[in-house]
Predict the structure.
Amino acid sequence: MTTHHDKVNQQFGQQANAYLTSKVHAQGADLEYLTSFLTNYPNAEFLDMGCGAGHVSFIAAKQVKHVTAYDLSEQMLAVVEQTADERNLKNITTVQGYAEHQPFDDNYFDIVVSRYSAHHWQDVGKSLRELHRITKPNGKLIIMDVVSPGQPVLDIWLQTIEALRDTSHVRDYTPGEWLTFLSEAGFTIDKIQRHRLPLIFDSWIKRMRTPNNLVDAIRTYQISASQDTKSYFELQSDGSFTSDMMIIETHKVI
């Protein structure tokens, strides 16, 4: 029997290099924000939670003392190690594990960042409680992820195309759900930023190697959407569309 964690590992292990070269993951307003934010933390112990191909890790490594790149996928971590070596980034350590069970000591990290990872976590509440445990008092947690607009018709449209494209997808949560999750885990919200994230359909599909029958299902579902839905997601004739993403900056309550 395969578990959800097995599915995530399978889905992303096969596409590790594609995520390294993905423009969506390699650039963006969120990475610009992170670069600016980290200038004040040169001595930080930093965790890249669900690091993927390592874009956050590579930025952080140039500014903080040490980076731990943490992910479920061995192949993703291998890409991080190889790229770090190529870029002469000697202060990155890779660790494999689950979001819900983290092998780190209590009060260990000054800064934890999760970018485009949390919508794959099997249990967000448990994962955030783990992040609270391993973050130092007054330490920072920053979540960067796609969010649902919340309105039921728009929400189900987004979740459906996400799940068809990637069978390891769990949920794009609403901003309100995120604020509840974080508060219940013991974090205080410091700042929220919201951005629009354009997604080019062809690269979005190829990056995940979505099977042709599921690609066809996505396109059929897109075409059948109401005009209100098409307008909100700025749906294009080639299937490209625009989602909402959010940056939530928090700190651990003492």
In short: Strands lie at 45-49, 66-71, 92-96, 109-115, 135-147, 187-199, 241-252. The mean pLDDT is 91.
